[in-house]
């Protein structure tokens, strides 16, 4: 069985077209299921290519706060 890689304390900075969160670990772009910008997460990688990886959240270190008001979406980092 192949060993799964864990990446710690990645900060989600963007959302990809398919709705997954985007973070970076050095030169590797990581697409994270069910993550939003502002989240800081630990991730288990389930698929890795040369320039990108796909993973799932194993630990939510810090949660982003999302508020919808007047048709605008506000994402803030909670401490």
Q: Give the mean pLDDT.
A: 88
**Rg calculated over all Cα atoms:** 13 Å
What's the N-to-C terminus distance? 38 Å
Helicity range of the residues?
A: under 10%
- Main-sheet strand order equals 1-5-6-4-3-2
User: How large a portion of the residues is in β-strands, by DSSP E?
Assistant: over 45%
Structure description:
This protein is mostly beta strands and 79 residues long. The protein has no helices and 8 strands. It has strands at 6-11, 14-15, 21-25, 28-33, 40-48, 52-62, 64-69, 72-77. The strands form 2 sheets. The protein has a 6-stranded mixed beta sheet with strand order 1-5-6-4-3-2, with no helix packed on it. It has a two-stranded antiparallel ribbon with strand order 7-8. A hairpin with a 2-residue loop joins strand 7 (64-69) and strand 8 (72-77). The radius of gyration is 13 Å and the shape is elongated. The chain starts with 5 loop residues before the first strand and ends with a strand. The mean pLDDT is 88.
């Amino acid at each position: 069985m192949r060993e799964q890689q864990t990446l710690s304390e990645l900060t989600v900075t963007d959302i990809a077209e398919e709705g997954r969160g985007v973070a970076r670990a050095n030169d590797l772009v990581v697409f994270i299921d069910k993550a939003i910008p502002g989240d800081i997460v630990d991730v288990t990688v389930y698929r890795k290519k040369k320039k990108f990886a796909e993973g799932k959240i194993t630990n939510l270190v810090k949660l982003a706060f999302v508020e919808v008001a007047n048709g605008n979406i506000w994402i803030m980092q909670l401490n």
